[in-house]
Amino acid sequence: MSSPSVASPATSPRYPWLAVAAMGLATFSVVTTEMLPVGLLTTIAGSLETSTGSAGLMISLPALLAAFFAPLVVIAAGNLDRRWILCGLLGLLVIANIASALAPDMLWMLIARALVGFCMGGIWAVAGGLAARLVPAHAVGLATSIIFGGVAAASVLGVPLGALIGDFAGWRWAFGCMAIFSAGVLLIHLFAIPALPVHHSVTLRQFAEQFANRKLQAGLALTILLVAGHFMAFTFVRPLLLSVSGFDAQWIGALLFAYGVAGIIGNFLAGIIAARRTALTLVFISLGLLLAPVLFLTIGDSHVGGGLVLLAWGLAYGGVSVGLMTWMMKAAPHAVEIATALYVGVFNIGIFLGSWSGGQAVDRFGLATNLWLAAGLATVALLLTFAIRSSGKKAQAICP
């Protein structure tokens, strides 16, 4: 059996917590860039003269590519210093955002978004396993939560931030602002991140071995169900709020910001509970993501109803990243880098499948049918979480 990736300690970081914060900002930058088109979907579609469903490719294409690149970067990186890999990927992210801001048509935009997918897979996968190299052992848990907190914060704040900037200055400036922000994060990395050499790289055989891990398999299945179901509906949240709940366009940014705040609260609540009761946390998250589209169909046809459902939706989805990542780390405690790469890959496959199939459903059958389909995936996820929790209780009864 090949030895796992072996990394030497970071070269005495002068500011270890600034380095950790820089890693969190990197994950925030790339996932915010990923989510940016969601709150601007109808505006970009109109500007680039394409359908709303086709514009959903701006979400699904980079997600699909990130799923491929996450494990590939971990394997192909070999012994390269992780500091320079991260800096190179951040530089490419700046270029991708500039290209998106200047896109004259949908083809140009999709090429720029493909580059985003490459950056997403690489940054998220490499950053996940670096906490132990930057801070003392007793602080690794907090450092890891900060790094992955960038993913959680971006998942819930990226959409409202893009929508707010788009409402005030236009959708091109939303991408331009992300280019400036990503350039700032790159400068922080160059200053704060120490050398991060690696002695032995991860192999394909180790990935194959982890695919046989039953707990990891369950977590990956749950990931694709929850993420695909969420993005099937949430990719089209702007047209939902406009056409179903009857909001005026100027309210969308504020509504999505409120969704983001609810998501941050959900992230912290899930993080606290998941450390001890991971399966129970996933049950509540699955239930929340089932109720969100159902409630939108039943009480979402008013300002009050639509607003309340959106807040509940943010609360539920805010816990997805930390809840699922906690499960993955517990499922493969001695292969966290591999588990992280697989999780990132499957997570982004879920985004691709959800946003792509949602686009097809919206174009062919309408928004309401799409919500029912999203609720169906969340129902399967809920049943799986009950099965996971039940099997865990049986195992505890046999081996108390």
UniProtKB/TrEMBL annotation:
Entry annotated with the keyword Transmembrane: yes
Domain of life per record: Bacteria
PROSITE patterns: MFS
Key words of the record: Cell membrane, Membrane, Transmembrane, Transmembrane helix
Domain Major facilitator superfamily (MFS) profile: 17-393
Subcellular location(s) of the protein: Cell membrane
Membrane topology: Multi-pass membrane protein
Keyword Amino-acid biosynthesis part of the UniProt annotation: no
InterPro entries from the UniProt entry: MFS (IPR011701), MFS_dom (IPR020846), MFS_Efflux_Transporters (IPR050189), MFS_trans_sf (IPR036259)
Ranges that cross the membrane: 57-77, 84-104, 110-132, 139-165, 171-196, 216-237, 249-272, 279-299, 305-328, 340-359, 371-388
Main location: membrane
Protein name (record): MFS transporter
Source organism of the structure: Pseudomonas azadiae
Lineage: Bacteria, Pseudomonadati, Pseudomonadota, Gammaproteobacteria, Pseudomonadales
